[in-house]
Amino acid sequence: MTDQDTLTLFHSPQSRSAGALILLEALGATFDLCVLNMKAGEQRKAAYMAINPLGKVPAVKRGDALVTEQVAIFIYLADLFPKAGLAPAIDDPLRGPYLRWMAFYAACYEPALVDRAMKRDQAPLAMSTYGDWGTMLGAVIEQLSKGSYMLGERFSAADVLWGCGLGWGTMFGIVPANPVITAYVERVTSRPAFVKVTAKDVERAAEHEAALQPA
Question: What is the pTM of this model?
């Protein structure tokens, strides 16, 4: 592997970047991992702000190519490792639905989730990116009711994204209990890549917390 091919993920344990790390594991990718201690504010220091001036993780670098924004990273990585089969090809009938639910996550689910978590009133319907909470979540539940995964019976990178997002949402009580969502989250998060990364992130988070304690 040349320097131009070297793939690096910038990650902080138990954060949004866990999904990107899970995806890389599921893809069987070879990559370097740069772990930031966000409790110590490393994401706001100059070295990382040069990578992402918003001070957010995840971010991915491959040679000179820098990719930020969670959904862009997922699409990029899944396409970069086509043999893993986690992204429908451009001529696959499922490619359109796959991109739809990837974009729906960023454009609708996350903004709605944040508004709900912050107990903020949504914008007027004409201005709201997600319409209203009930309609948005209803669309997700309806899609998940059609099969085991977001694309029916085919597991894809979209399920890593949604498994993480719905898992966090239900864990914190933002997304109300629903049997379809509960079964989906359990099904997705029991996969080996999820289990491996989750366990390792518990260790990393503990190490970061310990690093902040006085000697």
Answer: 0.94
